[in-house]
Amino acid sequence: MPSLARILGLSALLLLLFLVVLLVAQRWLQSQHGRLREEAITERRGQFHAAVEVTGGGAAAWDDARFALIGRLINARVHPRGSRPLPAVDANRHVVLIEPLPHATPPAEVVVAFQLPATTRMSLAHGRTWALLLVLVLTLMLLFILAALYSGWRESPESRGNWSAARAEMNSLESLARTSAAQGSALAEERDNRQRVEQDLLLNQRRLNQALEEKIRLGRDLHDGVIQSLYAVGLTIESVRALLPRDPQRADQRLQQCLDGLNRTIRDVRDYITGLAPEKLRRMSFAAAVEMMLQELRGSRQIGLELIVDDEAAAALTAAQTNEALQVAREAISNALRHGQADGLTLRLHRGDAEVGLLVQDNGRGFRPETAAGRGHGLGNMQARAAAAGATLRIDSLPGAGTRVVMTFPVSPVI
After folding, report:
1. Which residues contact 36 (CB under 8 A, 6 or more apart)?
2. pTM for the predicted model, two decimal places
3. Domain residues of the chain, as ranges?
4. Cα–Cα distance for residue pair 396/102, rounded to 1 Å
5. Is the peptide bond before 106 cis (omega within 30 degrees of 0)?
6. Which pLDDT tens digit goes with each residue over 200-229?
7. Under CATH, to which class is 212-410 assigned?
8. CA distances in angstroms from 170 to 1, 8, 174, listed in the order given
9. CA angle 396, 222, 390 (to 5 degrees)
């Protein structure tokens, strides 16, 4: 019986060790599941706000088509809160977010329901696997103890020699050692596999975010560049219709201008496709780029331009800031000609101690900025470009008083 007592004591010690290891692993997996769930919620909330920007920002109208488009962009179900009951979902596999609608009048909320990433669900599955393994270990250890007790009850001490007792004890210890080693190897392999899966999923998530940001940037560039150029060609064609009966030769000249404008637009589209647009801007000075934009946008109209560009201010801007400043200037000039019917423009680029300021002012009809929301993407794109460049944007306008656009970039102080 002393050998049986030693076996039972060793079994109890190993059982306690297994319990401690399994409980620590279970607690760790639960904390990992909670962390991954919070990261997934934060990531999806950021994607929702990015999708709101790419579909028109807070100024665009909220309707079923826009909710469906946002849902497709972020792989979720999106609908206004109150339009339908909240979906009944498994809290371990799905998440339901309640987000406010930007600039909605009256204030409203939207429901964003999505499925947790595979990493989070795998973490939960691992936790359940550990629980099942704990039950299995307890059951095996209980069976082992019962078998040892039953064997000791069946055999008397006189029927066993010292050699048989020692051999049985060694066999039991060898079996326990092999079981422990096999379980440790299996746990290490499972941990390595889970880490590789998490790394793959994080890489795919970063690629998805980069694709969404690139889609937003491309939409802004096409709106502020190609669409404005096509609109200028359209205005020139309208003037040709009125000019054709009385002056065919001059009408033919303007049609040639239209062809030249379309050819430039085709080249711009090719530049966007091949990624050459930023390089093209770097080859031109700021003043030359502004004059080219005005020549392109004004069509056949005579527009007065007061252009003052400080070369030191232009040199202080980075390539990315220069691109955003030119795109904002293009949008402001286009709005002044299209909507404001302006015939005079002032554009200045100057530098202060720790900032560079861009001013675009026109003498057009003006408007009320607070009532212009929802009429297009232009104002929203200008604000987004200023934010992307780390700048601030202010738009001042009143009916009959023209429009003033001021964009301010922070730069290194003058030494």
Report:
1. 116, 117, 119, 120, 123
2. 0.41
3. 1-160, 212-410
4. 22
5. yes
6. 777 667 766 655 665 666 666 665 566 767
7. alpha beta
8. 15, 13, 6
9. 50
